[in-house]
Write a structure and sequence with these properties.
By secondary structure, the chain is of the alpha/beta class. It has helices at residues 20-28, 48-59, 76-90, 109-119, 166-176, 186-196, 228-244, 246-251, 256-273, and strands at 7-13, 35-41, 64-68, 95-100, 104-105, 125-135, 140-143, 162-165, 203-213. It contains nine helices and nine strands. Strand 6 (125-135) and strand 7 (140-143) form a beta hairpin. Helix 5 packs across helix 6. Residues 270-274 have low confidence and may be disordered.
Length: 274
């Protein structure tokens, strides 16, 4: 790896006019300067692109490329992976940092990611800890106490907390980008693939990414377990695990959530067939 490798920051956007400029500024203002920024817009119907182009012109940003996707699919999770794939084709960096356009980076994130990859040449993927960030019109709140302590399926960090060596990401995308399991987003697929198939779950134990949440979500921590959609997603998660590695799948069939999702699936199937 070069002493100062080029880092590609790939920003994925759809209708995030209130947040995308903050995300973009956080990429522009990185203390590590050998970067390129690729902003992928997935046919937004709001003012996202107008605000991005305005900032590009105002700051005369030379290392920013904007991709305007004109045809958006109907499945959000597939759209996200398609956006990453198209941005990746345009990128030239040895290292890739991903960012959803409603999140943003600390100023020193890229510098620390590069330092880690240079010291740990065999690492292909790297996670950092998220700072949960809540915001409304009159209130902002961040929580930097969350620490991702364990490599235990199916726990995983969000997309904006994941960085890669470019070649490794290209190879992984070819394995996980199958148009099945539409409830499963990129972050789950990629973390599961690297943990199960590559035996890699590398962490830099620092909070480097602001991960935006709805303020109301703070009080809904456990309500997801009462949501049938959440359990449907859980079912697809187990199906995806079985697709990747049947041995790992069998190790989880006696877990609490596997048993619960199995019961719920039977109940909901029975209800829908009446």
């Amino acid at each position: 790896m070069k002493s100062k490798p080029l880092v590609s920051i790939l920003i994925n956007n759809y209708n995030k006019k209130y947040f995308c400029v903050k995300a973009l500024r956080s990429a522009i203002n990185q203390s590590y300067k050998n970067t390129e920024i690729i902003f992928f817009d997935d046919n937004s119907s709001d003012l996202s692109l107008k605000r991005v182009y305005k900032l590009k012109k105002k700051l005369k940003i030379k290392n920013l490329e904007v991709i305007e996707n004109k045809r958006r699919g109907h499945v959000f999770s597939f759209n996200q992976m398609e956006g990453i794939k198209k941005s990746l084709k345009k990128s030239k960096g040895q290292i890739v940092c991903l960012m959803d356009s409603d999140d943003f980076f600390k100023k020193n994130k890229v510098k620390k990611i590069v330092r880690h990859f240079k010291k740990n040449q065999s690492d292909e993927i790297l996670f950092d800890n998220p700072i949960f960030y809540y915001e409304s019109k009159n209130k902002k709140k961040s929580n930097e106490n969350y620490i991702f302590r364990e490599n235990k399926w199916p726990k995983f960090p969000p997309t904006s907390c994941v960085s890669f060596k470019k070649k490794s990401l290209i190879n992984a995308l070819n394995k996980i980008y199958i148009k099945k399991y539409e409830e499963l987003w990129f972050d789950f697929r990629i973390a599961t693939y690297f943990a199960i198939k590559k035996k890699q779950f590398n962490f830099i134990n620092e909070h480097l990414t602001y991960y935006r949440q709805n303020l109301s979500n703070f009080d809904k921590k456990y309500k997801k377990y009462l949501n049938l959609e959440w359990w449907r997603r859980r079912n697809q998660a187990f199906e995806f695990l079985n697709f990747l590695d049947k041995t790992s799948y069998k190790k989880n069939i006696y877990s609490f959530d596997f048993i619960i999702k199995k019961i719920i699936n039977k109940i909901t199937f029975f209800s829908s067939s009446i």
